Amino acid sequence: MTQWIDIGSVDDLQADSGVCALVENTQVAIFYMPKENAVYAVNNYDPFSKVQVLSRGLIGDIKGVPMVASPIYKQHFNLETGECFEDETVCIDTYAVRIENGRVEVSLAE
Amino acid sequence: MSNKQILVVIGNGMVGQNFLTSLMVSSLKETYEVITFCEESQVAYDRVHLTEFFSGKTAQDLSLVEEDFFEDNNITIHIGDKAVAIDRARKLVTSEKGITIAYDKIVLATGSYPFVPPIPGHKREQCLVYRTIEDLEEITALAKKSKVGAVIGGGLLGLEAAKALKDLGLKTHIVQFAPRLMAVQMDEGGGAMLEKKIEDLGISVHTSKNTKNISEGETCFHKMSFADGGELEADIILFSAGIRPRDELASSSGLALGARGGIQINNQCLTSDPDIFAIGECAIWNGAIFGLVAPGYAMARTVVNVLEGGDAEFTGADMSTKLKLMGVDVASIGDAHARTKDALIYTYQNGADEVYKRLVVSADKKQLLGAVLVGDASGYGTLLQYCLNSIELPENPDSLILPSRSDESVGLGVDALPNSAQICSCHDVTKGKICSAVESGCITIEALKGETKAATGCGGCSALLKSVLNSELEKSGIEVNTDICEHFAHTRQDLYNLVMIEEIKTFDELLEHHGQGRGCEICRQAVGSILASYWNEYVLEKNHLSLQDTNDTFLANMQKDGTYSVVPRMAGGEVTPDGLIAVGQIAKKYQLYTKITGGQRVDLFGARVDQLPPIWKELIDAGFESGHAYGKSLRTVKSCVGSTWCRFGVDDSVGLAVELENRYKGLRAPHKIKFGVSGCTRECAEAQGKDIGIIATEGGWNLYVCGNGGMKPRHADLFATNLDKETLIKYIDRVLIFYVRTAERLQRTSVWMENMEGGLDYLKSVVIEDKLNLSTSLESQMQHVIDTYRCEWKTTIASEEKLKRFRHFINSDKTDENIVFVEERGQIRPADEDERQHFKLVEEA
Question: How many domains does chain B fold into?
Fold first, then answer.
């Protein structure tokens, strides 16, 4: 059974952009694409710059794959798998996230 | 015994060696056993660059023979021995040292010798020639005990020899029989300019001097007496009066010679004996001896091809030359003397800069027949291509030699060259050959050099090679895609026009009508910038928020540790003491690191995202506003103190700087924009290194555009002079909006200018002459930006909704514990990784 953790209202999200939530001591970047009704959650830590900033990156897609670009050195990460487009040996954690009755819920478990 | 045929190559000079090299990479390597004679004690060396021997190059450096070349290719070389007889009936060659070889084929590459006119006294000691490394060694030794040197002969080689004497510290004279220097290549005007320039270098030039006698001198070793009664004394005399073919072996063997010497050859380079070829300076073709190395190489290639059974022919050679003599650029192309019937002549003479240029053009003004360039030979490559390829001249041929007063280019596009155009004359590489090398994957200059050998000889064609490469890359396989990204098949300029024409106000609207997918950081940022430039709406507006790049999205500059720096505007670098105190107090309160920027203001570092609003609230309360240090927009207008305080100031630079900064603040552009205003020509504000630079003069303001410091400095171009303030501002309005409309994404004004077709003149025609009839539109767009200016921070802190974003977590008031500072020189700095780990351990303990 997935353990969903409520992190706030959907109004706290930024359309076509990101925010950061603290989920059990883990910084989670949450991205919201209202047109596709899509929401993604990844670890906020940028492994290249080693700082907690991914929630502040620009989002979009590369050949249809949703991605976030690091605001520091602009590497791109696949929002679905966490894989880095520029360096296949680097992968960030991704988390389950959903919007239920106007509430945003994240699960840290695999 | 092998059953190979025997090929004897007589002479191992530049051309003889070039022939061997070509032979060894051909199929003939298997056909012939090669034996060669080298009369000198050195195997082939670069005689063209012989003078460099004086600047420290050794015989080894000048050598043209790769180590072990002869061994590796099984060539027998007899060094210090020469062929003295050819028995053509029995097909035997005999050498001075008594070697006899039965040959199948002979290639004569015996070269030439310096002509020494039979002046009485020419055999005196210390009368030398300038031809071999041995000669140079002797000259060097003699120079040590001499004071004055004279060169008889003012041709190409004579000038080289004079330079050598000058460099050896001698008072140097050039004695020229002809009425001008380089009489073969120069017309009268060119010769006169060259003479002046050579004399400027401290070398005395005596033209129209016929040396009648050389005898013992009074103050020097020699005395030269001239036909006109004049005399000149010198310790060393170098003869450089032209070359004569070495044809004595051919002559004694009964081969046909030219009327004034030289071994007669046909188009296959065959002598009157079908088994004997002659190449290089020993040969005479169609009545001409070619005293340059390139035609000799062409003959060598011809012989290799003929031996292979090919149908190559030597059909003469272009004798155009370009050289730098003692720092003087000299070039001569084709019919420099206008001997062609009805030829027209254009000349350009600039006494101040000592430049002379002459064009010889066909009667119909369509073809370039010849040219002479002295003092500036930069047009040589272009002119040579016009001449060699019979490319039709532009309507006004003189545009090719008149100075361009701007970036206006009169160069010949490489696309105009036919595939047969020879790009590299040293290695006979045509444009076609280069193009096919590019096609097969050589897409760098290095790769092209390796593959084609182009630009590996004298190197004179490097620039042309680069142009061909670039043009081919653009045209072919290596697609130069100008689409901004995968989401829009448009350039930034296209997108700008779409926004303007269709009055598009949001990214989603543009994406829906003209793009695909969800966008990315490239198109979002670019479109965000375009919308901001054109509509100037608040960048954190709901529709625009997701378009803002790293810095714009939080209206501050993100640093490496994820914290931000804050820069309040201090227009013109002017700040009151109270203002400074307020900035200091705020920095102290929030424990920020402070530093003065290059743009004359104060930068406050180390603010967490949640601290930005309270910091700005206090700054705004103290009278400051956003400095837009985070935006691709106008940053600062740097100024000197100007006439208000400075003893030398001509006008009020600070006053103008403040006014301009306030006028253009907030203007979003393809990239950041910096201004400078100097109060006099001492230029303390470094305005000529800025996108827009203004310098006060007695007559008004001088406007400079498109300069840059930074990574690739560019000196700004002088755009207009002696302007009143009203005109100045009008021009700046127009230049800036034209830049905003037409530049590529993240293109600074300097690069924009460099890529602009027509360059500075074009920009002037648009801005000053209003050629495109845009001035009203440009000015009104600027006026709109000015009228809708807002301090983005003032807008932000007034909105509860907007402030919500300035939290690290949406669900917690905690801050990012990953941000750690340590102290250095009395201020904070970000902790490095080791320090951060240490802190973590201490906290957990």
Answer: 6
| ipTM of this complex | 0.95
In a domain, B660, yes or no: yes
The answer on pLDDT for B407 being more than 60 is no
User: In the structure encoding, which two tokens stand for residue B453, read together?
Assistant: 């050998």
Residue-wise pLDDT for B331-343, tens only, equals: 999 898 988 889 9
- Report the DSSP pairing between strands B222-226 and B231-234: antiparallel
DSSP B195-220: HHHHHHTT-EEE-S--EEEEEE-SSS
Tell me the HSE value of B307 on the side-chain side, using a 13 A CA sphere: 29
- Among all chains, which residue has been given the structure tokens 């060699």? B388
Residue B672 lies in a domain: yes
Which residues of chain A neighbour B819 with C-beta distances below 8 Å? 51
Q: Is B469 helix (H, G, I), strand (E, B) or coil?
A: helix
Last residue of a domain, one of B210, B241, B272: B241
Pairwise CA distance, residues B532 & B529, whole Å? 5
> Which residue, B202, B219, B241, sits at the end of a domain?
B241
| Confidence band, pLDDT 50/70/90 cuts, at residue A110 | low
For B516, which residue in chain A has the nearest alpha carbon? A64
Helix (H) or strand (E) holding A6: strand A5-9
Helix (H) or strand (E) holding B387: helix B380-388
Burial category of B510 from C-beta neighbours within 10 Å (exposed 0-12, middle 13-18, buried 19 and up): buried
Six-digit token string for B842: 């201490």
Residue in chain A closest to B806 (alpha carbons) equals A19
Query: CA-CA distance, A69 to A75, in Å (whole number)?
Result: 6
Question: To the nearest whole angstrom, how far is the Cα of B816 from the nearest Cα of chain A?
Answer: 8
Task: Output the domain CATH number for residue B273.
Answer: 3.50.50.60
CB contact A7 to B (< 8 Å): yes
Query: Does B518 contact A61 at a Cβ distance shorter than 8 Å?
Result: yes
CA distance B279 to B295: 9
| B647 and B500 co-located in one domain | no
Cα dihedral across residues B297, B298, B302, B308: positive or negative: positive
Query: Is residue A91 scored above 90 in pLDDT?
Result: yes
pLDDT band, residue B427 (cuts 50/70/90):
confident
Work out the minimum CA distance from A1 to partner chain B, whole angstroms.
Answer: 24
- Do residues B450 and B528 both lie within one domain? no
Full set of structural domains in chain A with CATH: 5-104 (2.102.10.10)
Residues B581 and B625 in one domain: yes
Task: Convert the pLDDT of each residue in B276-314 to its tens digit.
Answer: 999 999 999 998 898 888 889 999 999 999 999 999 999
Which of B145, B147, B212 minimizes the C-alpha distance to B175?
A: B212
**pTM (predicted TM-score):** 0.56
Q: Does B844 touch chain A (CB under 8 A)?
A: no
Q: What is the CA radius of gyration of chain A?
A: 13
Does residue A50 sit at the B interface (CB-CB below 8 Å)? yes
In a domain, B627, yes or no: yes
Contacts of A17 in chain B (CB under 8 A): 545-546, 553
Domain of B430, in residue numbers = 420-480
Task: Report the C-alpha dihedral over residues B775, B718, B377, B381, rounded to 10 degrees.
Answer: -30
- B210-248 per-position pLDDT tens digit: 999 999 999 999 999 999 999 999 999 999 988 899 999
The answer to whether position B85 is within a domain reads: yes
Q: Are A5 and A107 in contact (CB under 8 A)?
A: yes
